[in-house]
TrEMBL record, chain A:
The lineage of its organism: Bacteria, Bacillati, Actinomycetota, Actinomycetes, Micrococcales. Keywords: Oxidoreductase. InterPro entries: 2Fe-2S-bd_N, 2Fe-2S_ferredoxin-like_sf. It comes from the Bacteria. This is (2Fe-2S)-binding protein.
Length: 99, 411
């Protein structure tokens, strides 16, 4: 796991969830079952989730499903909001594919 | 009909409205939310109140258990696309739910705080920070700058440092067009008074109360040390504004500049290396599902455009109720009591009570109590805003009123 993970929170205690793996652009990454897709990618250092029409990088912004900046393709389905989708073992995520 | 009641939004207001209607009236209630996780914004909330921590996730668990016990059917992970009189609630899956009554408890969203470089990955709104840190236990960055001056900016800074991240400072917005947030140190100090009860140290509470006085706030802004006011481990830099977010492909630095007490830039700018910037522009009520269905009124003191509603949270549309931040920006405890009130009004309209008046008065008193005891006051004018809303409803409901019985288009 990476240095962005909070393993033991002073008020909330140890991080919940089980470890699992998913595929991001054909690379296997580790995540926790409590992660959203956006969170798992964030913790693994992937900040760019898609590109704007003019090619500018875009990533997680509002985190509550409102801004639609974090759209990725999940298990072949495009336009899914990475901040709302919880990770599942073996899930396949593609970034940067949508304008 | 698929149900007696459809509740849209599974935050504190929606959960409590659903539970109350199901329990008190034996109503068949379906609760819909686009998130897979129940609780709305509650699971992301964590703040200090006196000597204890208020943990939103625990409240969410309790409310979800109560809803399950009351027999509420919960459809999580289902986005609502539209809500039409009748009531027909269309879901993303093309499925349509129908019920004679609907409660809209869609809450609020953050106002954007646009500034140069804000689309760079690594720029996050406060909601994203709360979800990352408290729910998923992931830091937004190792070195983080917070930009914004509302209570949410302060709590986010505390949450990050508590979890082990470094907050290099809480900075003023630059005050450019499109930003709703205050950028003058004088005004910011005045608005900070809403943060008084959550301020960690006694002297800060005292200080914050004094700042409600505009003259004292103005004097304090002149005396304020450029190093900033301590907010937990972080410093509120009322004399520095954020001018631009910089980086190649992702956030790498924040450019700041010193300002006078009136917010006028003085001196050169400098760049602070950071790997994330959190922007806090404040909240506004979400009206996507009420627009076109009932009368809306603009009341800036409660956060903007809200449904015209009775003290019992009925709207101008028959069978349409509202609860929580969709009626104005307040904390989760108020939203929870509003949910109970809307659920009680609903149950009363379904004939559940022998003495509905007494039940409604009791539920309304609980809302007022939660409002008076609120730890965080998001908007300094909330009480006068609520009074204004009551007056608008009375004018609407008065015999002989022009708008009686029909939805006007105040919006």
């Amino acid at each position: 796991m990476t240095d962005k993970r909070i393993t033991d929170h002073p008020v909330l205690g140890p991080a919940p969830g089980e470890r699992l793996t998913l595929w991001v652009d054909d690379q296997e990454i580790e995540a926790r079952s409590t992660d959203t897709v956006a969170g798992a990618l964030w913790a693994n250092g992937t900040t760019t989730l898609r590109r704007s029409r003019s090619g500018q990088p875009r990533g997680l912004y509002c985190g509550i499903g409102h801004c639609f900046e974090c759209r990725v393709t999940i298990d072949g389905e495009p336009g899914k909001r990475a901040c709302l989708m919880t990770v599942r073992q073996g899930m396949r995520v593609e970034t940067g594919t949508e304008a | 009909m698929d149900a007696d009641v459809i509740v849209i939004g599974a935050g504190p207001a929606g959960l409590t409205a659903a539970t109350t209607a199901a329990r008190d009236a034996g109503a068949r209630v379906v609760l819909v939310d686009e998130n897979e996780r129940i609780g709305g914004r509650l699971p992301g909330q964590l703040y200090r109140h006196k000597d204890t921590w208020v943990i939103g996730a625990r409240t969410a668990e309790r409310l979800a258990e109560e809803a399950a016990e009351a027999g509420v059917e919960i459809l999580s992970g289902h986005q609502v696309w539209s809500c039409e009189p009748g009531w027909r609630v269309r879901l993303e899956s093309s499925r349509t739910l129908t019920a004679p009554k609907v409660v809209v408890a869609t809450g609020a969203a953050e106002r954007p705080l646009p500034m140069p470089g804000w689309t760079l990955p690594g720029t996050l709104a406060i909601g994203a920070v709360q979800q990352l840190v408290q729910v998923q236990r992931i830091l937004p960055g190792r070195r983080v700058a917070v930009v914004g001056t509302d209570p949410l900016a302060m709590t986010a800074a505390e949450e990050i440092t508590l979890a082990g991240g470094e907050v290099v400072g809480i900075f003023m917005p630059s005050g450019e067009p499109g930003q709703h947030a205050e950028s003058s140190p004088r005004k910011v100090l005045h608005s900070l008074s809403g943060f008084a009860s959550a301020a960690p140290a006694a002297w800060q509470r005292l200080g914050a109360r004094m700042l409600r006085n505009r003259a004292i706030a103005a004097a304090a802004a002149r005396l304020m040390p450029p190093s900033g006011i301590p907010i937990g481990e972080a410093k509120l830099k009322v004399r520095h504004r954020a001018e631009a977010i910089l980086g190649a492909g992702k956030v790498e630095a924040l450019r700041i500049r010193k300002v006078s007490a009136q917010g006028v830039p003085v001196g050169d700018s400098r760049e602070i290396p950071v790997d994330a910037v959190c922007l806090s522009g404040g909240l506004y009520p979400l009206q996507e599902l009420t627009t076109g269905n009932c009368s809306l009124v603009e009341v800036p003191e409660v956060g903007g455009l809200v449904p015209l509603h009775s003290p019992e949270l009925r709207t101008t549309a028959p069978g349409l109720y509202v609860a929580g931040n969709v009626t104005g920006i307040e904390g989760a405890a108020v939203a929870e009591r509003q949910g109970a009130l809307a659920g009680t009004a609903l149950a009363a309209d379904l004939g559940a009570y022998r003495d509905p008046g007494a039940r409604l008065r009791e539920a309304a008193a609980q809302v007022e109590l939660a409002r008076a005891e609120a730890v965080l006051t998001f908007l300094p004018g909330i009480f006068s805003g609520r009074r204004r809303l009551s007056e608008l409803w009375e004018a609407h409901a008065a015999p002989g009123s022009q708008s009686e019985g029909k939805a006007s288009d105040d919006a």
